[in-house]
Amino acid sequence: MSIFKQKIVWIGTLIVLLVLVVFGAAMMGSVLGAKPKEVPVALVVLDQPAELPGGSTLAVGEMLKEKLTSNAQLPIIWTIVGSEAEARKGLDDRQYYGALIVPADLSSGVASLAGAAPKPATVKIIANEGWNTQAATVVKQGLAQAMRLAGAELSKTMLERIGAQTQQVSVTTASALLSPIVVQEEIMHAAGVNNASGNAPGLLTQIMWMGSLVSALILFFAGGAAMKAGSRRPAAIVWQSIAGIVLTGLASAFLVWEASSWYGMELADATQTWLFLWLAGAAFYMIQSALLNWIGMPAMAILVLLMFFSMPMLNMAPEFLSTASHDWIYAWTPLRFAAVGLREVMYFGGLDAVSSNATVLWSVGGGFLLLLIGSGWKRMKPKTQALPTPEAA
């Protein structure tokens, strides 16, 4: 039992608990409490009211619009747009995770259920899978459920109208009443084959961060060895920067080749994916190398914690995150800008589709490059010389 009298045991226990708290917060804190809220979706209502026998009017489109926009249970924030083309442009521009298109003949299709030749109209749900698979799935499931409930209500209403006119319902009419609104689902910017269900950009970003970190460590030690061999510190730091850019370029090219050749990841344009991944890797390298050269090995704790806190958020839509996770980590972590920019390259048309994320990476990489080069003129602590012993004197 004497082992429990050792201070190292109790200090070690506190360290273990601290590690569990920190990494638990990093890996679980932002994920376990995540839930969708205010997911942006476009709503297009083209429906024209239909006249019913007896002079009454049926406006299903307006009814759907009112029910959907007032439904607080749907985690959706609606944007009313005037046409399907406008909604699709918003999906291309990453403004919405999905769209609901209500056609012009919806009311007339529902009204036809009371006639001899029922022709239900089709409502279209478009999911923007490439922007975020998780959010697109929420949109599809939520809108499909809303359409089922609306269809059930319309079936009841139309059945009451038909029952007031006749006690017999044809098989064709009864079948149409089961699905008064036909739902058609469409995927825009679909992720390719073996893309981890659309999570490949986040996965590649994580791997590239690790590859850049290893590169930064290798060249940090190599620069130190070169200075011990007689190289001047400013020159060693400059060559460390150049070598890092070259090495991350090679690493990103190998990663793209590995993902496509070894694991069958479908890439719309492998070259453009490589170029953006190179930019992300170079920016990561500059951050890591600058911190290592200014702080030394303690910088590794910062870099590892940054990676672990960022990883769970890379494949999540920002609308799913808590306010603390979004504002304290997601809003500024460089891994997020790389993952989102890579998503734009891979699923939205290549480098031409990259928005401000590339600018942020260029700016961050350039700023830390200046810090890295500036470390070449950092004052080093003078080496203390051992005092001669009396015997030597």
TrEMBL record:
<keyword id="KW-0812">Transmembrane</keyword>
<keyword id="KW-0472">Membrane</keyword>
<protein>
    <submittedName>
        <fullName>DUF3533 domain-containing protein</fullName>
    </submittedName>
</protein>
<feature type="transmembrane region" description="Helical">
    <location>
        <begin position="353"/>
        <end position="373"/>
    </location>
</feature>
<feature type="domain" description="ABC-2 type transporter transmembrane">
    <location>
        <begin position="7"/>
        <end position="372"/>
    </location>
</feature>
<dbReference type="Pfam" id="PF12698">
    <property type="entry name" value="ABC2_membrane_3"/>
</dbReference>
<dbReference type="InterPro" id="IPR051328">
    <property type="entry name" value="T7SS_ABC-Transporter"/>
</dbReference>
<dbReference type="InterPro" id="IPR013525">
    <property type="entry name" value="ABC2_TM"/>
</dbReference>
<feature type="transmembrane region" description="Helical">
    <location>
        <begin position="237"/>
        <end position="257"/>
    </location>
</feature>
<feature type="transmembrane region" description="Helical">
    <location>
        <begin position="207"/>
        <end position="225"/>
    </location>
</feature>
<feature type="transmembrane region" description="Helical">
    <location>
        <begin position="294"/>
        <end position="314"/>
    </location>
</feature>
<keyword id="KW-1133">Transmembrane helix</keyword>
<feature type="transmembrane region" description="Helical">
    <location>
        <begin position="269"/>
        <end position="287"/>
    </location>
</feature>
